[in-house]
Amino acid sequence: MFNKRLLMAGVICSATVLAGCNEGGSEATDKAAATDAKATLTTLEQKVNYAIALNMATNFKQREVPIEVDAFTQALTDVRDDKEPALSQEEMQTVMQTFQEQQMELQQQKQKELAETQKAEGEAYLAENAGKEGVMITESGLQYKVLEEGDGVSPKAEDTVTVHYRGTLLDGTEFDSSYAREQPATFALNQVIAGWTEGLQLMKTGAKYELTIPSDLAYGPGGNQGIPPNSTLIFEVELLEVEPAEAPEEAEAAE
User: Fold this and answer.
1) Where are the domains of the chain?
2) Residue 170: closest CA among 109, 124, 135
3) Active site residues
4) CB 37 within 8 A of CB 17
5) What is the mean pLDDT of the segment spanning 204-231?
6) Per-residue pLDDT tens digits for 89-146
7) pLDDT tens profile 22-58
8) Residue 84 contacts by C-beta under 8 Å, 6 or more apart in sequence?
9) CA distance 19 to 10
10) 3-class secondary structure for the chain?
11) Which residues are within 8 A (CB) of 47 and not within 5 positions of it... i.e. 6 or more apart?
12) Which residues are 210's β-sheet partners?
């Protein structure tokens, strides 16, 4: 398995060479190398090599792994020329395990730093937002502003609600929107984040609120898809319909 990894790593070298990457060369040399590289991409095999190498190199760059051209070149030529690998299977296993551990530690550190940054930015935003006209604050720290009053019923935590909503991060990035899907969402109110469960119970059918939800009432330090850890979230929510939960005695009768 590690031989294959090393071989694929070696393939990246071909991408680097074909792309005309020469760290020590002049700009003119780089341009000439790039021109030559394009000229050599004529056969199917050359194009396949380039495509695979480009994907690998992109993956390395995204993961912030330095591309060691000489090491790639050695691995590639060793395999091509049937030479004995420079590292034994045991050494490769140790190297890969150490590398994976380092990457994991690096990722955890980045997540920690991001969480701390998001927490601080969220607290600063909440403090500023609290002073804005029309913003109300509940005991839990949830902030809400009435955009449109409703005249229907208010849901309870056990009820099912149908809503239209738009969710954004503090920088305005939209991470979810039923409006964009052109389809309202229906769900049990006690099965969503705490800020929603609390906030929608303040609303009446037909109402439209802006909910500013602290991270501890949202996704907390774990974050969610498209939502960084410890993010304070802003939702524009329109309560369309409330379906009361079935009373226990009614459920028993139905059974």
Assistant:
1) 2-86, 127-248
2) 124
3) 165, 175-176, 193, 219, 235
4) yes
5) 96
6) 999 999 999 999 998 998 899 999 999 999 999 999 999 999 999 999 999 999 999 9
7) 344 444 445 444 445 455 899 999 999 889 888 988 9
8) 78
9) 15
10) CHHHHHHHHHHHHHHHHHCCCCCCCCHHHHHHHHHHHHHHCCCHHHHHHHHHHHHHHHHHHHCCCCCCHHHHHHHHHHHHCCCCCCCCHHHHHHHHHHHHHHHHHHHHHHHHHHHHHHHHHHHHHHHHHCCCCCEEECCCCCEEEEEECCCCCCCCCCCEEEEEEEEECCCCCEEEEHHHHCCCEEEEHHHCCHHHHHHHCCCCCCCEEEEEECHHHCCHHHCECCECCCCCEEEEEEEEEEECCCCHHHHHHHC
11) 41
12) 145, 236
Enter the pTM of the model.
Answer: 0.68
Architecture of domain 127-248: Roll (3.10)
* DSSP structure string for 216-249: GGTTGGG-BTTB-TT--EEEEEEEEEEEPPPPHH
Tokens for 249? 């005695």
Which residues sit opposite 168 in a β-bridge? 174, 234
List the structure tokens of 178: 């039923």
Listed in sequence order, the residues at least 6 apart from 245 whose beta carbon sits closer than 8 Å to its beta carbon are: 156, 158, 159, 160
